[in-house]
Structures are given as structure tokens and as C-alpha cells.
UniProtKB/TrEMBL annotation:
Membrane topology: Multi-pass membrane protein
UniProt feature coiled coil, ranges: none
Keyword Transmembrane set for record: yes
Key word Transmembrane present: yes
Protein name stated in the entry: Outer membrane protein
PROSITE patterns: TONB_DEPENDENT_REC_3
Domain TonB-dependent receptor plug: 110-215
All residue ranges annotated as the TonB-dependent receptor-like beta-barrel domain in the record: 409-955
Length: 996
């Protein structure tokens, strides 16, 4: 009977078993959030279902049977059914990416509806990189964006978008959640949702006087509909120095120095018995195994009426110089409350507390002679020999060991906004926003007395001649206040779509800074080396008669009206127009109002009928033209000069100082204007796997704000013109070979031709260090003499043009007679180097197989020069030698580049091509290997995603210059100067992130 029952049940259940079993799973997007409404079809069983609100599904299918998952806006995929719970991740389709929303000035728009060059970078691109400043992670990622990084903890990168457009400032405008800012070092990379780079006139004109240098828009995270999401990530990295400059060791130094003295008519150095060490000063001050620790926690939650996001972060970064530490604590809050379908309010707040490091560098370590040991036999610091740099540089260990902990530098910054948004009638939206930015930097420092041993006199003396301790204080506060009133009209009627924006903006800036110092009383007790005494009122140790103080303060305001219209017809014909009128308190009344505008158009050929069977998915031809503004200047209120001391007069027995204007008043000054235009196209093909963008751009700055020195007069005026033009190319290939294997390849290249068309009057030039800015040449060009070789004999000297530049002979540089007049004079100086690259480029590739992924980024520049400003070739003090000096000229035929060793004449130290080095390089910018765990549940916690990764940054650099790195930022007219100061280290880190 029992066998009969079993047989009967088997007969009943067999068809059900043969037809399939219940397959359960969840469909997620790339962020790990469930996708509701996705359709799942069992290809053989002919059953189907769709996902619920959280992305869950169940379907009757056989194990191993193909399941087809589709959803509007996502790539359709097919996977094999599994009896265990399935987790399926869908990717956004390429065509949907063109319809993605990008942030633009004072709003957002579909990327497809724009006519300009806006590049969107997802927040995840910068979230897991070991950089204190988010923009540092964008190096090599965006065409037209130049990022020059520094290895110094906390130092802001040098950022330039489409070239150097002014002689006053290169930094772009940052806009964080609608708030204007001068930098984003206060933003935690983990709190960023996206970064948009605005480069063209149609997207920049809406920013008026702030748009000339480009704009970087940052959107921080907000809560997303669905369940609460908690993300935790942490990483720890180790720094190491590569590409250390090569300098002489003790044996080589002695050989070169003695030869130099003999050549100059002096006997060999007489104190080698006192200085007989062989010290590697770079090794002495290097912090080997410097650590970078970064930990972040973020929480996002949203309901129908409230979206909340919280973020917390802690960063601790050691420098590659000992006792150099950066600490940052950050927080981010975004909350939006929906009162009704027509009204919502929101607040946002970012805050930071930073402990800033002391700015030491390797300059003294490169220059210090190696024959001195760091300490004498009694453990006292050794002073460098008086004749070998002792008067110019001290023992490199002293500032690192003794002065790093006697400086306290803190930063507190709070940036917040509140806003309200009301929908009016049917198609209007009115938004009011108020924001504030308070940046407080304060610090105290102590100058101790430090004993050093002078071997020549066998005496212990005071470091740097200090006989008194002292303390100093500073406190600088910058406050910005911003108001925005925006009315937006958005209407679709038939095939037409129109978005119109009208608004009013005011921006006020305030700075107050005060600083002071005081020394100990002569004959009194030293000020204690204890932070609680490091104040100006350090009674009873401080001598109030030595107390000095300084202050700086300024404020300015800008009010603006703005308009923008976005129109498209059938999604094929697109026109954008922008207008802004800015009024600035820093300009004279008659010229303080200026207008800026742009017009852009695009044609989406890919939607035309004649392109239907072409295989091209998208082909958009675009162009824009406009005028932008640049309000940045070396001084505030340039038309109102301050007073400075002039000649004094004696009245009776009283000496009365006189004060005169610092420069002549000019009452018709206005801001610089940048006329910009571009044209190009965007293409996607091969089923959206291949994309390609090409753009030609041209930016011409007119009416430069130039400070002129002419005879006995100094004044500001609007004069001069700078042009930047070139091409930008970007391409990518994304392919999913199978459910487990996918890969992508992308690259970008930017060409740049910078030229100063005029400065002031014909022949007027601006000099800054080794650079000259003059008409017909790139801005900040290196300027000096061209070295043709070295005089090999007196016969060579006699057969060459006579030089009037100083005393010279065999073994010295042979400068070129550029003008051909038969004599070497100052008129033979010429442009000998361009600090601006001919082109920059970046390349990225990623491969994903099952749960493993590998990503590699390369980045480089080509065609620029670097000015070497270290190595005993640019200073008259006697420092250590570059090891290249081993190949110096010692007789006919021994060298035609490295001159003889001699300090008797400064002939070989004139600015020349000897100091110019090739700045081209290619760098393995980033390599990351990751293991992505499948979603799972543990202890009633569902982990949506989990990743373990290894990351290597700046892994290797192929370069040609002799310094630590070929990268060097600077001012608009003096950059790419290698002072040998700080390397860009390799950072190898391991990290972990989880979302649940």
C-alpha cells in the first residue's frame, strides 16, 4: 500500500517537477538598489514575472534555464536560473546615459539636450582613491582639464581648464550643491555623488565674471528612494619615494669642490679632517613608510516625503618628510523634506576640522653638503661649513626634528545652505536659496633656541644666529554669503521642449586677518617650549616692546541677473542661450556693470530618417559662442590704490614720514573678457559600445588687467590679449562579452596652443623669475641665452663672437649670437622654453571577470619644458652638486655641455638653456585590483555589495628631468619651475568597502 501511495504522488508531481521549480532572486542597479518593474522571462518554460518595489522576484523555471531580464533604461541581459537565491545587477544602457541628468549652472538638464562640453564624473571614481582633495583624482580623466598634483599633504592641485587665460589666476570656480567656492578641500570624496566639468561658453556664460577659468560642479549625495543604505569604507596606504634626484656623495663632492677652488685660484679645502662624513640628507629627513589612513561612513535614507543623507570621514596622512602630518575630520548632511506635491525644503551642511602640516621640503637636503654628519660626538647638531652653504642653509634635520612640533595650524570650515522650492501653476518652479561659507584658519608657532656645533671654531653656537625665543599668532577668517532667486519654466508642447530660467544672485565676500609676534626679554628667561605659552601676551617672558602686529581686511560684493533658455525640437534640433549681467563693488561706478552671454546649437543627425540603417546610434554636431568674464586680480579694488611710505621731511627737529599713493589711480577699469567658441561632434556606434567626441576650442582673453611700470609711474590698466586654442578628443569602448566577462577602454587627448598676442604697448614685457611674458610667445615663457656648447680652447674663444656678459674662457658656456650682430649681449636673450604642454593625454582600461576587476589609468603630457632651479646651477651660494657635474669640462673635448667648475665669475649662471629640461612624461597614475563579493545576509544584515581592493597610485613615471617629478604648478606667469622641493610618492593601499 505504501509503495502505491509513493508511486501515485510521484505520478502527480512529476509534471510539475518537469515543468520547473520556483526560482527566487533580486534585480539591482549598479548602486546596489532594487529595480522595481523589471520583466523576467523564462525562455524555455514560457513563464514570466516582474520585480516588486524592492527588486525581488520569483518565477517557475528549470535550474539552468535562461532568464531574460529587461527594463527600460537598462541593458537587457540573459542569465542561467539557479536554485539558490539569485542576485542580478543591471547596467544602464548607453542610449540612456545620453538622457542622463547632468548638473549645469543653476539647474540640471538631460545631457542630450545640451550643446556644450560638459563631462560628468561619477563620485565612485574619486571615492576610493588616497587623495585628500577630490580633484586630484581627476588627473588624466577629462580632456581639457589639466591637474598638476603635489605630493605634499593637504596642498591643493594646480588646476587649469583649456589653458592659462589670465596673468592673475588660473583656478576654476567650484560650485558645491549650488554654493560658490574657491576650493573643495573641505569635501570628503566619499560624500560626492558626481562632478561635472564645464568647459564651453554655452555652459559657462551663466556664471558671468567667474566663468573664464571654467567651472567644476560638485553634487554631494542625497537619499535615494528605497530602503536605508549604509556604506562603510576604509583604506590604509603606504608611501614611498621614487625618482630621487642624484646628487654628489662625499667623495665626488670633495673632488669637485677642490677642483673648483683650484680653478678659482684658491687652495684645496683645509677642513676635511673636521668634515669627513658621507651623509645622504634626503635619506636623513625622509619618512619611510609614511601612512595614509582614510575611513568613511555614509547613511542614505528616503521616503516619499523625506530624503536624508549623512556622511562622516576621518583622514590621517603622513608626509614623506618626518614629523609631517595632516588630519581631517569631515561631515556632510543633506536633508530634503517634501511638504506637498508643490512645496519642498532642504538643508545641506559640510564641515571640516583639519590639523595642517608644516610646509617642509627637500630643498635643503638637496643642497646640503654630504661631508657633514648630522650630529657631533656629543649628540649636538652639526652646523654646515661656513664656506659650503652654512650661511645660507642650516642642518636639514633641525627644522624637521625641532620645528615641526612647534607649529600649530588648524582649519575649521563650515559650508551650508537652505532652500525652498515651490511649483507655481503648472509649468513654473520658484526656488530660493541662501548659503554661507565660513573658513577659519588659526595658528601659533614657537621659535626655540637650538644649539649647533661649529667645527671650524670648535664651539657650540645658536642655530641661525638666534639669541632669543619668540612666538607668533595668526587668525584669518573668510566669510561668504550667497543668495539665489530662480524662476524656471519647463514646458513640452508637441514636438517642442522649452526650459527657461530667470534669476537673481548676490555674492558677498569678507576677509579679516590679524597676526603678530613677540620676542623674549633680553636677559630674561626663554619663553617655555610648551603650547600653553605660545601667545602674544606671554607674561612674564615676552618683551612687549618687541610685539608687532599686522592686519588685513577687505570685502566685496557682486550682484547679478541671469537668464537661460534651452530649446529642442523633436530632440534633433537644439538651441541654448545664456545671459548674465554682473555688477561688482570692486570697479568704478561707470564700469562696474558688465554683460556676458552665449549662444549654442546642436543637430542630432542620429535621429534623422536617412541615418536609420547607418549603424550609428548617436551623431550630434554642436557648437557655441560667447563672452565670459574674469574678475580675479592681484589686489582688491584696483581703481582705489592704497598709500605707501614716500620721502620724509624734517620740520624743526621732527622727522615726519610722507605717504604717497602706491600707484596712479585709473578710473575706467573693467574686468577681463574672454571671447570663446567651440565646434565639434559626439558619436556612438556599434550598438552604443563605441563613443567618440571631438571638439575644437578657442578662448581669447581681452582687456587684461595689467599692472604697468612705465618710467616713474605705476598703474593698472586694461590692455593685452591672450589666446588659447586646440582640440579635444575623447573615446571609449565598452563591451560585455558574457555574463561574467566585460571590459572597457577609454582615452582622451588635448592639444593646447597658448599665445600672448599683446601685453600693453609694443615691446612691453612682464618678467617674473626666469620667465618673460611678451607678445608673440606663450605666457610665462622661459627666457635666457641659448647654449651652443662650451669653449674648448682659447682659439675657440677668439674665433667666436665677443661676449659682453662677463669674464669667460675655455670651459665656459658658448652663448649663441641670436641677432647675428657679432657680439653676445643681453639682446641675444630669447624664449628658451615653454611651460605649457603641446598636448596632454589619459588612458584607462578595466576588465571584469566574475567577481574580480582590474582597472589601470595612465596619464601624461608632452612638449613642455621644466626650469631646473636647484643643483648649484642657479645660485651663487656653494651647495652640493648634481652628480651630472662629474662630467664637467676639464680640457678640450671632455664635455660640450657641463661647464668647468668655477665660482669666480657668474658667467655660467646666467639664465640659459642649461637650466631647461624636458617636462614630458607618462605615468601609471592608478592601478586597482578588486574582489567584489556577491550580496549575502549575515546576522539579519543584508550586504548589498562588498569590495576588497588593492590600489597603487603613481606606480611609475617615465620622465626626462632630473628632479623628483616633472610636475610643478605655480602662478599664471611663473609655473613649471622645479625647485626640487617635494616628490609625488607612490601610494600602495589596501581597502575595504561594504554597503548594507
Amino acid at each position: 500500500m505504501r509503495n502505491f501511495i509513493f508511486s501515485f504522488l510521484a505520478l502527480i508531481l512529476l509534471p510539475a517537477y518537469m515543468s520547473g521549480q520556483v526560482i527566487k532572486g533580486k534585480v539591482l542597479d549598479k548602486e546596489g538598489l532594487g529595480i522595481p518593474g523589471a520583466i523576467i522571462i523564462a525562455l524555455n518554460s514560457n513563464t514570466n514575472t516582474d520585480t516588486d518595489f524592492d527588486g525581488n522576484f520569483s518565477i517557475n523555471a528549470k535550474s539552468g534555464e535562461g532568464l531574460k531580464i529587461s527594463m527600460i533604461g537598462f541593458e537587457t541581459l540573459t542569465v542561467g536560473a539557479k536554485s539558490t537565491p539569485m542576485v542580478i545587477t543591471m547596467q544602464v544602457s548607453k542610449s540612456m546615459q545620453l538622457d542622463e541628468i547632468v548638473v549645469i549652472g543653476y539647474g540640471s538638464a538631460k545631457k542630450r539636450d545640451l550643446t556644450g562640453s560638459i563631462v560628468k564624473i561619477e563620485g565612485k571614481t574619486v571615492a576610493d582613491k588616497p587623495n585628500a582633495n577630490p580633484v586630484a583624482s581627476l588627473q588624466g580623466k577629462v580632456a581639457g582639464l589639466s591637474v598638476v598634483n603635489s605630493g605634499r599633504p593637504g596642498q591643493e592641485p594646480d588646476i587649469r581648464i583649456r589653458g592659462t587665460v589670465s596673468r592673475n589666476q588660473t583656478k576654476p570656480l567650484y560650485v558645491v550643491d549650488g554654493i560658490f567656492s574657491t576650493d573643495i578641500s573641505y569635501i570628503n570624496s566619499n560624500d560626492i555623488e558626481s562632478i561635472e566639468i564645464l568647459k564651453d561658453p554655452s555652459s559657462l556664460a551663466i556664471f558671468g565674471v567667474r566663468g573664464a577659468n571654467g567651472v567644476i560642479l560638485v553634487s554631494t549625495k542625497q537619499g535615494k528612494a528605497g530602503k536605508m543604505s549604509i556604506n562603510f569604507n576604509t583604506s590604509t596606504g603606504v608611501k614611498s619615494i621614487v625618482g630621487t634626484p642624484k646628487v654628489a656623495n662625499a667623495a665626488l663632492f670633495k673632488q669637485l669642490y677642490d677642483e673648483q677652488r683650484v680653478n678659482d685660484g684658491a687652495p684645496p679645502y683645509a677642513y676635511y679632517n673636521l668634515f669627513n662624513s658621507d651623509t645622504d640628507w634626503i635619506n636623513q629627513i625622509e619618512n619611510k613608510g609614511a601612512i595614509v589612513q582614510n575611513t568613511n561612513l555614509s547613511i542614505q535614507s528616503a521616503t516619499d516625503n523625506n530624503k536624508l543623507s549623512l556622511g562622516f570621514g576621518f583622514l590621517k596622512e603622513e608626509g614623506v618628510i618626518r614629523n609631517e602630518n595632516l588630519q581631517k575630520i569631515t561631515f556632510n548632511v543633506n536633508d530634503e523634506v517634501k511638504v506637498s506635491d508643490k512645496l519642498k525644503f532642504g538643508i545641506g551642511l559640510n564641515g571640516i576640522k583639519s590639523k595642517l602640516p608644516v610646509g617642509n621640503n627637500f630643498g635643503s637636503a638637496l643642497n646640503a653638503t654630504p661631508i657633514v654628519s648630522p650630529y657631533n660626538a656629543d649628540g649636538v647638531y652639526n652646523q654646515l661649513p661656513v664656506q659650503i652653504g652654512g650661511a645660507q642653509i642650516g642642518n636639514p634635520l633641525i627644522p624637521v626634528n625641532e620645528e615641526s612640533d612647534t607649529n600649530i595650524n588648524n582649519q575649521y570650515r563650515f559650508v551650508g545652505n537652505v532652500y525652498g522650492e515651490l511649483k507655481l501653476l503648472k509649468d513654473f518652479t520658484f526656488r530660493i536659496g541662501y548659503s554661507g561659507d565660513m573658513d577659519i584658519r588659526k595658528g601659533r608657532s614657537y621659535v626655540p633656541l637650538i644649539d649647533v656645533f661649529a667645527a671650524e671654531s670648535n664651539q657650540v653656537t645658536s642655530y641661525s644666529g638666534r639669541t632669543l625665543t619668540s612666538v607668533s599668532q595668526y587668525n584669518t577668517t573668510v566669510q561668504n554669503f550667497q543668495q539665489d532667486y530662480l524662476l524656471t519654466y519647463n514646458k513640452k508642447f508637441g514636438d517642442h521642449s522649452l526650459t527657461f530660467l530667470a534669476g537673481y544672485n548676490s555674492f558677498q565676500e569678507y576677509l579679516e586677518s590679524i597676526s603678530g609676534s613677540v620676542k623674549q626679554k633680553i636677559g630674561g628667561e626663554p619663553i617655555p617650549n610648551d603650547p600653553r605659552w605660545w601667545y602674544l601676551n606671554v607674561f612674564p617672558y615676552g618683551d612687549q616692546a618687541t610685539r608687532v602686529s599686522n592686519s588685513e581686511q577687505w570685502e566685496r560684493a557682486t550682484t547679478s541677473t541671469l537668464f537661460r533658455a534651452l530649446y529642442n525640437y523633436k530632440g534633433k534640433y537644439i538651441v541654448n542661450g545664456s545671459f548674465r549681467r554682473d555688477s561688482s563693488s570692486e570697479l568704478p561706478k561707470d564700469t562696474r556693470d558688465q554683460n556676458f552671454w552665449s549662444i549654442g546649437a546642436a543637430w542630432e543627425l542620429g535621429k534623422e530618417k536617412f541615418m536609420e540603417n547607418s549603424g550609428i546610434n548617436t551623431l550630434k554636431i554642436k557648437g557655441s559662442y560667447g563672452e565670459l568674464g574674469n574678475q580675479y586680480n592681484a589686489v582688491h579694488y584696483p581703481y582705489l590704490p592704497n598709500y605707501t611710505t614716500g620721502a620724509s621731511a624734517v620740520f624743526g627737529s621732527t622727522l615726519v614720514p610722507a605717504f604717497v599713493l602706491a600707484y596712479r589711480n585709473t578710473d575706467n577699469l573693467k574686468w577681463e573678457t574672454v571671447t570663446s567658441y567651440e565646434g565639434g561632434f559626439e558619436l556612438t556606434t556599434f550598438k552604443d559600445r563605441l563613443s567618440f567626441d571631438a571638439t575644437y576650442y578657442n578662448k581669447t582673453t581681452k582687456d587684461l588687467l595689467v599692472f604697468v611700470t612705465q618710467g616713474n609711474e605705476n598703474f593698472y590698466t586694461n590692455a593685452g590679449e591672450i589666446e588659447n586654442k586646440g582640440f579635444e578628443f575623447s573615446t571609449s569602448w565598452d563591451d560585455k562579452v558574457s555574463d561574467k566577462f566585460s571590459y572597457s577602454i577609454s582615452g582622451n587627448l588635448t592639444t593646447l596652443n597658448n599665445k600672448v598676442n599683446s601685453v600693453f604697448e609694443p615691446g612691453y614685457e612682464i618678467f617674473s623669475g626666469p620667465t618673460r611674458t611678451s607678445a608673440g610667445n606663450p605666457i610665462g615663457s622661459f627666457y635666457g641665452y641659448e647654449v651652443e656648447g662650451i669653449y674648448q680652447s682659447y682659439a675657440d674663444v677668439l674665433s667666436s663672437p665677443v661676449s659682453t656678459l662677463g669674464s669667460y674662457g675655455p670651459g665656459d658656456f658658448k652663448y649663441k649670437d641670436v641677432n647675428g650682430d657679432g657680439t653676445i649681449t643681453t639682446d641675444d636673450r630669447k624664449v628658451i622654453g615653454n611651460p605649457t604642454p603641446d598636448f596632454t593625454y589619459g588612458f584607462s582600461t578595466s576588465v571584469s571577470y566574475d567577481k574580480f576587476s582590474l582597472a589601470i589609468d595612465l596619464q601624461g603630457v608632452y612638449g613642455n619644458e621644466v626650469w631646473r632651479n636647484w643643483g648649484n646651477g642657479s645660485t651663487f651660494a656653494q651647495f652640493n652638486y648634481r652628480d651630472a657635474r662629474e662630467d664637467r669640462w676639464t680640457g678640450a673635448g671632455t664635455s660640450n655641455w657641463e661647464p668647468r667648475l668655477s665660482e669666480a665669475s657668474g658667467y655660467n649662471k646666467l639664465n640659459s638653456t642649461y637650466n631647461v629640461e624636458d617636462g614630458s612624461y607618462i605615468r601609471i597614475r592608478n592601478v586597482q585590483l578588486a574582489y567584489n563579493f556577491k550580496p549575502f545576509s549575515a546576522q539579519n544584515i543584508t550586504f548589498q555589495s562588498m569590495k576588497l581592493f588593492l590600489n597603487a597610485q603613481n606606480l611609475h613615471t617615465w620622465k626626462h628631468n632630473s628632479g623628483f617629478t616633472p610636475e610643478a604648478g605655480g602662478s599664471p606667469i611663473e609655473f613649471s619651475i622645479d625647485n626640487g622641493g617635494y616628490p609625488l610618492p607612490v601610494i600602495t593601499s589596501i581597502g575595504f568597502s561594504a554597503t548594507f
